[in-house]
Specification:
Layout: H1 2-16, H2 21-28, H3 32-40, H4 47-56, H5 61-74, H6 87-98, E1 101-106, H7 117-126, H8 132-143, E2 154-160, H9 161-168, H10 173-184, E3 189-194, E4 208-212, E5 221-226, E6 229-233, H11 236-252, H12 256-264
Parallel strand pairs: 1-2, 2-3
Antiparallel strand pairs: 1-4, 4-5, 5-6
């Protein structure tokens, strides 16, 4: 996410300075493709490259220093980079690791951040995942953010009643339900159940995730997951629409207290 943030800022600075992509490439003695990869967040520039671009775009020292700090952070590999995840999932896990808060709506699945190991294994087996142990370990590492001592991830999860009914017949059902109740006691975790009795809602076609970040990391974004992967949405108009959908869903859902009582009934 820091690479995306840095790339967006470099693109804006280049355009404000009326510098073409070709001129930027000539300055770095590289291909136009490399400049586009830097601006898209695919790659981070090296320190001398950023210094050259800052000079070309007429940046002041303070702005250059801020971008250099972002560049250093963006260049550090995250733990997920060696997990050999599918590209879309690796991008999501990296974004989640940088996020301050996550708001998520799920129609059929317990959110990954709230899954117990046996549930996670069962889901991965159904999906035919090649290395289940690796996937389960990645999920465990992601969940560590919820109990981080310094800056725990803030999670607000709205789950359909269908999520609970899908789990209810499994031999690990009570374990999963007890875990949801335990997590709901954490001050940084909110769990709400959207009951069938609520009727039609604004996201009948599937779930989604909203991620919020520190201002110097990224603007808010959304993630839409589907059977064969997932897509990031960073267009702020679309993100705002997804946020409005989430607001509608959590207003229709049971309160936190009602949700806890409802989940407890399944044990």
């Amino acid at each position: 996410m820091r690479r995306r943030r840095l790339g967006d800022e470099l693109r804006r600075r280049r355009e404000a300075a009326n510098v073409t992509v070709e001129a930027a490439a000539e300055e770095l003695d590289c291909s136009v493709g490399k400049i586009r990869h830097i601006e898209s967040g695919r790659n981070a520039p090296k320190k001398p490259e950023l210094t050259s671009l800052a000079s070309l775009y007429g940046m002041d020292e303070e702005t250059h220093a801020v971008l250099e700090e972002i560049r250093r952070e963006a260049s550090k590999p995250g733990w997920w980079s060696i997990a050999r995840l599918p590209p879309s999932l690796q991008t999501y896990v990296g974004a989640e690791a940088d996020a301050l808060s996550v708001r998520t709506f799920h129609v059929e699945l317990v959110p990954g951040l709230l899954q117990v190991e046996r549930y996670a294994r069962a889901v991965n087996e159904l999906e035919g995942v090649a290395n289940i142990d690796r996937q389960v370990e990645v999920r465990r590492r992601r969940q560590e953010r919820l109990s981080d001592d310094e800056q725990p991830l803030v999670l607000h999860a709205v789950i359909s009643e269908a999520v609970l009914r899908r789990v209810a017949s499994a031999d690990y059902a009570k374990e999963q339900f007890r875990h949801l109740l335990a997590m709901a006691e954490r001050p940084n975790v909110t769990i709400q159940v959207l009951p069938f009795s609520a009727g039609l809602h604004v996201s009948l076609n599937g779930g989604f995730v909203l991620l919020d970040f520190e201002p110097d990391v990224s603007l808010p974004c959304a993630y839409l997951e589907y059977a064969a992967g997932g897509d990031f949405v960073d267009d702020q108009v679309m993100v705002a629409r997804m946020a409005a959908k989430f607001d509608s869903l959590h207003e229709m859902a049971m309160s936190e207290e009602q949700s806890v009582r409802f989940i407890r009934e399944w044990i």
